[in-house]
Amino acid sequence: MEKKLILRGLLAGAVGGLLSFVFARIFAEPQIQAAIDYEGARDAAQEALSTAAHAHEGHEVFSRTLQGNAGIGVALILFGMAMGALFAIVYSLCLGRVGRIQPRNLSLLVAGAGFVGLYLVPFVKYPANPPAVGHEDSIRDRTDLYLLMVLASVVLLVLAVVLGQRLQARFGNWTATILAGTAYLVAVGVVMALLPQFGHLAVNEASYGSHASETPLPLTDSDGNIVFPGFPADLLFDFRLNSVAAQLIMWAAIGVVFAPMADRLLSPRTAKIPADPITA
Amino acid sequence: MSSTTPSGSIPAAAATPVVVPLSRAGLLLFGTALLAMLVYYFIGVDQGAYSIFGADTHIHEFVHDGRHFLGFPCH
């Protein structure tokens, strides 16, 4: 049974990854290219100013065409399959251990937990950034902090579910769910408040001064005149909104595609259609 | 977590029984989770902050756009 569930999770994840790739190819790639163009023009302006040159090496291993089509496609589909596998594992473990939730509803709930726990909560603290936003020297710190945020979010979400199950006996489903959800929000809020913002990392404060984020500010010459604009705010917002939308599409697809397959697998006797694996 | 459902009094028609007991499926689930996290690592992290294959950047460059878009920190 667990093999069948994992295979179906992989399939649902591949569908989710494929859909988010189609979305990304249409809506995100133009923004990624615009960000890379901004970075190139800014580097040129910086070099013209001949201040401490931070030349972003044009080490082209793969062309932009390859990165923007095959690269992002492979990345999103493989990522979707990995998330589908994790989803199926959690789903399998939840079966029979979460009360009277039906197989299809459980599929949506686990997918929702994946979206919120693995992506959305970490995003709120450390949002997705397009190319050109992010200093090279801080990559180690930023990665460590991001993964720590993901880990904290997932662990706290599991603890919140366990807490909800404990409270259920005394308060009933409705109140227990609200209490556990609130506890989760408060706990991740505390973690977010304790972790530093990227702009305040020691390596960044030393080179760029005290700012909340790494988003490029306007370039100025020695007289303080702006010679190159800061990173476009609209572009940053659109990229982040699309990043959330793509993950929402991926997780929603995982939950929705997996649900009927699990339902058929787990309750063959109650299924309305007799054994017919081809029915959509 | 125990392998039996804690709420045995729930109506049998509505409850889903434990389908995947940990004793039997633990290894498969663990192995799959490990593989999935390895994929997560290679798409999101490798050849950026950490690198398994030294200074090589092929994986990083190939999945570059996806890495940004999935929310991972990148250069």
Radius of gyration of chain B: 20 Å
Structural class of chain A: mainly alpha
SSE order of chain B in H/E notation? Answer: HHH
- Number of helical segments with 4 or more residues of chain B: 3
Oligomeric form = heterodimer
Q: What kind of sheet is the major sheet of chain A?
A: 2 strands, antiparallel
Q: What average pLDDT do the residues of chain B reach? A: 81
Total helical segments of chain A: 6
Runs of chain B in which pLDDT lies below 50 for 5 or more consecutive residues are: 1-13
Number of strands of chain A: 2
Organism (chain B): Kineosporia mesophila
Transmembrane segments (chain B): 25-43
Protein name (chain B): CbtB-domain containing protein
Keywords (chain B): Membrane, Transmembrane, Transmembrane helix
Describe this structure in words.
The complex is a heterodimer of chains A (280) and B (75). In chain A, 71% of the residues lie in helices and 2% in strands. Chain A is mainly alpha-helical and 280 residues long. Chain A folds into two domains: 1-56 and 64-133 and 230-280, no CATH class; 136-214, no CATH class. In chain A, strand 1 and strand 2 form a beta hairpin. The longest helix of chain A is centred in the middle third of the chain and has 56 residues, at 139-194. Chain A is globular. The mean pLDDT of chain A is 91. Chain B is mainly alpha-helical and 75 residues long. Chain B has a domain at 35-75. Chain B is built from three helices and no strands. The longest helix of chain B is centred in the middle third of the chain and has 23 residues, at 22-44. Residues 1-13 of chain B have low confidence and may be disordered. Classes of the chains: A mainly alpha (280), B mainly alpha (75). At the A-B interface, helix 1, helix 2, helix 3, helix 4 and helix 6 of A face helix 1, helix 2 and helix 3 of B. Chain A: It comes from Kineosporia mesophila. Chain A: Keywords: Membrane, Transmembrane, Transmembrane helix.
